[in-house]
Amino acid sequence: MDNAKNSGITTEWVDNAVKPGDDFFRHVNGRWLDTYEIPADRSKDGGLYTLRDDAEKHVREIVERIAKEQPESRIGALYNSFMDTDKIESDGLEPLMREVAPILNAATSEQLAVTLALLSRAGLAQLLGWYTSIDQKDPEHYVFYLTQAGLGLPDEAYYREEKYEQVCAAYIEHIATMFELTGLAEGFTLTPMEAAQLIFSHETEIAAHHWDVVKNRDAEAKYNPVKATELDEKFPGFPLQQWLLALGQTPKSWARSLFLSLLSWRAWRTCGSPPR
To answer: Does pTM surpass 0.85?
Structure first.
């Protein structure tokens, strides 16, 4: 009987030409870095992504094995409805328009704030990121965190660095195409390109207030506790109290041009958000 135990350490990618004391990461992973080809549909890859793919495959197998008579079959029904591309095609834009309707019907900034919150609870991309976690300086308590968000491109650098100009141009064209295909621009009495340019301008304004990736690594700088009751005073112009209440948390009007850009931006982000 073979009693040998597998340590879990893979040595096939070790680059012995690099001394571990000089560059341990390169020593352990050098051959993988030199020979591995990242799949064309990905910008990065590695062990964690393989683990994620395997986990999703196993979940699919479990869901597909669930017997119809079991209560868990509702999970299978939900999964199958998501994978039913024929039904998705036959439904056309109608399910999407149901999601967009509350945005188009928001008549005030307060109503739009509530709509943004409800869409955020549904998992769609938002103007502000949020989550609840342990207080970084008081582990006995949980706190509600707000984070920067609201961009369709990966980060703020895309909106200000010249090397991304072609990406930005293609992004604007993509938004215009989506607005043309869905007919959403008509709801704002704009052409698809006008809507796309308005949205990009809005995102550029958001990006101007974002921290770059370097500053975002500064845990001390990111720790800025504020009472919920102080949010409207510290950040006027956006009805954060209504937004928080609609999110389910406890706890000035916008210019028309900003309100219009927010409406069109939110409609776009609803169309452009991948399913979760």
So the answer is: no
